[in-house]
Design brief:
245 residues
């Protein structure tokens, strides 16, 4: 309990340094653009690929397991859409990104810590926490909603692929289910949740990397701990945000 409170206090203290006023906006903006390319654009491929397969698998599973003469034929498309929009595209996708992006952030900053690059920045009078972490946090919070959009579109294409190439069901029935009682607010819910999840991924991973002590083994441990902690916090935040939204 005491260790957890100590960690929370250190995390909040670090965030206080991160969100202090930047020294040179132009330099930070360049870092922001670089982080968008590194953390966001480079993740599009894995998001699209996983979403395609998940959309196809969800459609097949629903078709095979809940199909009934008593249910409308559009039920499969309707349930597929609800799963993709409400949970997979935001929550599950961010859990996947916590492993890819979160471990990358923790290992990058952790390596800078153990090689004393962060100490060098502080000696030069640079707010190292703000310089290293703030662009990552903002880049993820800006780009993750776009990744959610890619995930939803790719998931729906994967669902259609089961109709076009797998012959699982009629594409017209799937389309009717995808359009049935569509609520735009559900898309905004996914965007809102993904922004919170992006902040968790970037800030928590950066905290574990920034506070590393020791050598390369500790960097690896910090990377693993960051993924585990991010995953737990994302699930908890998902529970809270779902109830609120």
């Amino acid at each position: 309990m005491i260790k957890g409170l100590t960690t929370l206090g250190r995390y909040l203290s670090l965030m206080g340094q991160v969100f202090s006023k930047p020294e040179r906006i132009k330099v930070y903006f360049k870092e922001f653009i670089r982080e968008i390319a590194t953390l966001g654009v480079d993740s599009i491929g894995i998001v699209v690929l996983i979403s395609l397969f998940i959309g196809a698998v969800i459609t097949i599973q629903i078709k095979l397991n809940i199909e009934s003469p008593w249910m409308p034929r559009w039920t499969v498309g309707y349930v597929t859409r609800e799963i993709l929009v409400l949970e997979f595209s935001s929550s599950i996708m961010c859990l996947i990104l916590a492993g890819k992006v979160g471990s990358n952030i923790a290992s990058e900053i952790g390596t800078m810590r153990v090689t004393q690059q962060i100490d060098a920045l502080e000696i030069m009078g640079v707010n190292s926490a703000c310089y290293l972490i703030l662009p990552k946090v903002l880049a993820l919070m800006v780009f993750i909603p776009l990744l959610v959009t890619f995930g939803i579109i790719a998931g729906i294409l994967g669902a259609y692929a089961t109709c076009w190439f797998g012959g699982i069901m009629n594409a017209t029935d799937l389309e009717a289910g995808l359009q049935y009682e569509f609520k735009e607010w559900y898309i905004w819910c996914s965007f809102i949740k993904s922004i919170f999840f992006a902040f968790i991924i970037a800030s928590v991973s950066a905290y574990f990397g920034y506070t590393v002590k020791g050598g390369s083994n500790e960097v690896g441990k910090a990377s693993t701990d960051s993924v585990v902690c991010c995953s737990v916090l994302i699930l908890f935040a998902d529970l809270v945000l779902t109830n609120l939204l």
